[in-house]
Amino acid sequence: MAEHRQRPAILVGALTGRSHHVLLAGGGHAHAVALRHLAKKPPSPGVTLTLVAPSTHNLYSGALPGVIAGHWTADAIGVPLEPLCAAAGVSFVQDSITSIDAGANTVHLASGNTLSFDLASLDVGSGIRRLDIAGSDDRLVPIRPIEPFLLKWQKTIDKARGADTPPSIVVVGAGLAGIEVALAIKFRLEEEGFPDARVHLVDAGSSIASSNSPTLRRKLKRALDRANITLCLHARVQSIDAGSVSLSTGETLKSALVVNCAGSAPHGWIGESALATTQGRIDVDPCLRSTSHPNVWAAGDTSYFTADPLEPAGVFAVRAGPVIAENIRRWSQEFPLTQFDPQSDYLKLVSLGEKKAIAEKFGITVEGGWVWKLKKAIDFSFLREHSLPARN
Ligand SMILES: Cc1cc2nc3c(=O)[nH]c(=O)nc-3n(C[C@H](O)[C@H](O)[C@H](O)COP(=O)(O)OP(=O)(O)OC[C@H]3O[C@@H](n4cnc5c(N)ncnc54)[C@H](O)[C@@H]3O)c2cc1C
């Protein structure tokens, strides 16, 4: 965080006596961290806060491949939002935002209710890019939202257990998430007693994990080969019928499940709002304020950091959390806001299905069982820190 010179505190609403309402939209990584910080150091008493999220738990995506692989269950990777809210004095509303009117300071909710705010901070993450496949798009199961994906994955395993032939699965998108998911699926199917299960990883591009270093790509390719995952590059999904996928290369792949990992895509309602956006993500300044509507802030996958565009990654959302908390306090005291200063390099950790992982930072790439243990320790330390016991 870059510090700004402070001036004497004038509490928001001190002159009018009116309480000011801060809306925390979404309970993603950034807001979970912000809540923990707000619990330790709250804003001025004249500020009320509400968090709106569709679910009481936010599933931690970094540990999702471990659920798919069967190393732990989905229960283990949920951040319970209600206790975090209670500790920070924030009201929790279980609902989904369907639109935002940044000019009128209101959001509309799926329940039909409207909430008004003086300040809104958006951390609603992202969905998965829809593929333009006429008539069959609903047969593609996006990896996010995570809960419905996990239900489909469990159903696929249950069905495979009762079948005579080993299952075939297609994963679309050979970025880091798609590779982790494909490796986790293959590992799980082998553990379930299907050594001959087929997993195809399909991508329209010419290489896997294309925005990553050649060393990381080489190691990932070796892991895919070891796991016997078939890579289909230069291939687009053209149609999906019950049980099979047709590719632009002319191939037809059998498939019990087609998982869409084709990259993150912003929520449509953000693009439909008056907020300035880039590729559907809210343009924010160095203080994480919307460049068009400073009463709206955004962080994580929801935001486009104009000063230094960042890839959508949980690590940047986590780092934004303390800045959001600090700035809510500063806003409530009418102090100048602090700036978000994300480090450009970060420790990349990619799990490989089995209990091995690859790590990369500062151009150094390492692989092994100890890296998987390190990743597990980092992921579960975040989960422990943010899992407060429920209050009665
Ligand atoms: C398989 C996989 C593995 C990944 N591994 C890593 C990794 O190892 N490291 C890494 O840095 N990144 C990883 N990522 C990327 C990471 O998941 C995202 O960048 C990260 O989740 C973004 O965090 P966030 O705070 O923006 O939103 P999220 O943590 O995704 O949370 C968004 C929240 O908003 C809520 N929400 C959604 N819509 C609405 C709405 N309309 N109204 C109200 N609330 C709403 C959701 O329910 C959710 O609680 C991975 C992604 C995938 C798919």
Give an account of the 3D structure.
This protein is an alpha/beta fold. It has three domains: 20-126 and 266-344, FAD/NAD(P)-binding domain, CATH 3.50.50; 137-263, FAD/NAD(P)-binding domain (3-Layer(bba) Sandwich), CATH 3.50.50.60; 345-387, no CATH class. The chain has helices spanning 29-40, 64-69, 81-88, 146-161, 176-191, 214-226, 268-271, 314-332, 369-385; strands at 20-25, 47-53, 57-59, 78-80, 90-94, 97-101, 106-109, 114-116, 119-122, 127-128, 140-142, 168-172, 198-202, 230-232, 237-241, 244-247, 252-254, 257-260, 264-265, 277-278, 281-284, 296-298, 303-305, 348-352, 354-361, 364-368. The strands form eight sheets. The protein has a five-stranded parallel beta sheet with strand order 5-2-1-9-22. A five-stranded parallel beta sheet has the order 11-18-12-13-14, with helices on one face. The chain has a three-stranded antiparallel beta sheet with strand order 6-7-8, with no helix packed on it. Helix 1 packs parallel to helix 3 (81-88) and helix 1 (29-40) crosses helix 8. The longest helix has 19 residues, at 314-332. The two termini are 36 Å apart. The model is unreliable at 2-11 (pLDDT under 50). Bound molecules: flavin-adenine dinucleotide. The site of flavin-adenine dinucleotide (FAD) has 35 residues, from helix 1, strand 2, helix 2, helix 5 and helix 8. Flavin-adenine dinucleotide binds at residues 25-30, 52-55, 58, 61-62, 64-65, 96-97, 123-125, 143-144, 177, 180-181, 267, 300-302, 312-315, 317, 349.
